[in-house]
């Protein structure tokens, strides 16, 4: 492609989804703009705002497509197969309109997969029409995600698999997220892919004490509002809170000095899409087990006066109160909030919230532990949420599956669990003696911080993605 003297090369980042929920593709856009010095067009659905670094970058231009409306639950089952055909057709022509008309011709299209249909077909056709290179970033396999709802034996799943494989082979280059996926693509798909491990960008880092205090001041009111009549956090408001804006559940500010409270709860963060493929009940059951086990160990009498009980658990007695903050949006959120409200928990509290993209890293950087409930439909991808947690110096307890050990190293930066009972055991071990004497938790945190300093997204992208994209598009 010949360029004028003052014309910059371009790349198009294509996501058939909400760009605000696609952090890896946002990071691709930033690297293409800052490290490859390209003009970047993002073609995606609107919805959640991307990070401010993406929104405000002068060389990144976001083009929002109209989103396909959600399927009404009242739709007769006989019409649902029709929608499975109609939806990708509408998406196909919309993608072509944006990729071939609405944006300038790029040197390279970089497309997120999945979804595979109609994305790979539309981008391949657009790359042929506009004489551009076509690079796929394999996050997972689309046909395995479809099989979660339709079953592995569905004809639609078989057709989807065929399309994904055939058009995947047509790409000028491929990136993928794990070595296990690289092996699968090479052995069974005939596709050579370069591994680009997810890494957090620079704004995912441990929070300073001042940043923690500012964050907790901003969300303190939400944290003190329970789902039921009262819990171990809201009761503290009734007995000790004096509306001092410089005092939060975790921190205290006196003049210019900020300190962490010695009797603060342990803060555990988990993010979820609130969908059926992520079993949130595991975390609820583990929290309930922790609550009951600590009560039994300390010989706490369920009949003792409530005011005495609340005062005693504020001091910790070896095991702290646990506060779980669950971030994210999704269809099953309300159902689980109702379940939480019915739990009779004395040492544990849950809060759900949605944070701005700039505040989410601060929450991770202020927490004591992360929990990941992600299970892969293919068994070959890794959870981005754990990558973000590691970037913020946060150790993780994660559900165990086939390739998770490519990310979580047991007893170094986290722990793996397969059941709610096993997760409860880990809570008991990690938080005994919190905050001063929990050696196992401190050891995991040190392991995360040690590994965090050795790699980052920019260096990984420069070493693995940039050469592949440059070769495919002849930069």
Automatic annotation (TrEMBL):
Superkingdom of the organism of origin: Eukaryota
Keywords: Endoplasmic reticulum, Glycosyltransferase, Membrane, Transferase, Transmembrane, Transmembrane helix
Pathway(s) annotated for this protein in UniProt: Protein modification; protein glycosylation
Any one Gene Ontology cellular component term annotated for this protein: endoplasmic reticulum membrane
InterPro entries: ALG1-like, Glyco_trans_4-like_N
Gene Ontology molecular function, alphabetical: mannosyltransferase activity
Domain Glycosyltransferase subfamily 4-like N-terminal: 38-193
Record localization: Endoplasmic reticulum membrane
Membrane disposition: Single-pass membrane protein
Record protein name field: Glycosyltransferase subfamily 4-like N-terminal domain-containing protein
Species, as recorded: Anisodus tanguticus
């Amino acid at each position: 492609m010949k360029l004028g003297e003052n014309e910059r090369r371009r790349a198009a980042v294509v996501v058939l989804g909400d760009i605000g929920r696609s952090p890896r593709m946002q990071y691709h856009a930033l690297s293409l703009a800052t490290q490859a010095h390209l003009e970047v067009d993002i073609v995606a659905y609107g919805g959640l705002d991307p990070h401010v670094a993406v929104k405000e970058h002068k060389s990144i231009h976001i083009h929002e497509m109209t989103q396909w409306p959600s399927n009404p639950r009242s739709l007769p089952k006989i019409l649902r197969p029709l929608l499975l055909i109609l939806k990708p057709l509408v998406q196909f022509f919309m993608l072509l309109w944006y990729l071939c008309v609405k944006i300038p011709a790029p040197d390279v299209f970089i497309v997120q997969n999945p979804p595979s249909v109609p994305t790979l077909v539309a981008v391949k056709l657009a790359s042929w029409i506009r004489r551009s290179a076509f690079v796929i970033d394999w996050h997972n396999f689309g046909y395995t995600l479809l099989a979660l709802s339709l079953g592995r034996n569905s004809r639609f799943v078989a057709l989807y698999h065929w399309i994904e494989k055939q058009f995947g082979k047509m790409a000028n280059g491929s990136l993928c997220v794990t070595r296990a996926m690289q092996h699968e693509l090479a052995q069974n798909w005939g596709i050579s892919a370069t591994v680009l491990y997810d890494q957090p960008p620079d704004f995912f880092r441990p929070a300073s004490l001042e940043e923690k205090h500012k964050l907790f001041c901003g969300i303190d009111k939400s944290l003190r509002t329970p789902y039921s009549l009262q819990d171990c956090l809201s009761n503290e408001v009734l007995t000790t809170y004096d509306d001092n804006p410089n005092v939060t559940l975790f921190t205290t500010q006196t003049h210019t000095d900020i300190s962490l409270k010695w009797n603060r709860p342990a803060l555990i963060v988990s993010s979820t899409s609130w969908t059926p493929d992520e079993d949130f009940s595991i975390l609820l059951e583990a929290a309930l087990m922790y609550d009951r086990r600590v009560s039994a160990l300390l010989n706490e009498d369920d009949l003792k006066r409530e005011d005495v009980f609340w005062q005693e658990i504020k001091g910790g007695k070896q095991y702290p109160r646990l506060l779980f903050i669950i971030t994210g949006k999704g269809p099953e959120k309300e159902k689980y909030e109702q379940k939480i409200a019915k739990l009779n928990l004395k040492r544990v509290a849950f809060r759900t919230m949605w944070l701005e993209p700039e505040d989410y890293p601060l929450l991770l950087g202020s927490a004591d532990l992360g929990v990941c409930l992600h299970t892969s439909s293919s068994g070959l991808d890794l959870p981005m949420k754990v990558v973000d947690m590691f970037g913020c110096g946060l150790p993780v307890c994660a559900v165990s599956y086939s390739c998770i050990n490519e990310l979580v190293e047991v007893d170094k930066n986290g722990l793996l669990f397969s059941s709610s009972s096993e997760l409860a055991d880990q809570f008991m071990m990690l938080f005994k003696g919190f905050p001063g004497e929990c050696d196992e938790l401190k050891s995991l945190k040190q392991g995360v911080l040690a590994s965090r300093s050795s790699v980052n997204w920019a260096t990984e992208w420069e070493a693995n993605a940039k050469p592949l994209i440059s070769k495919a598009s002849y930069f």
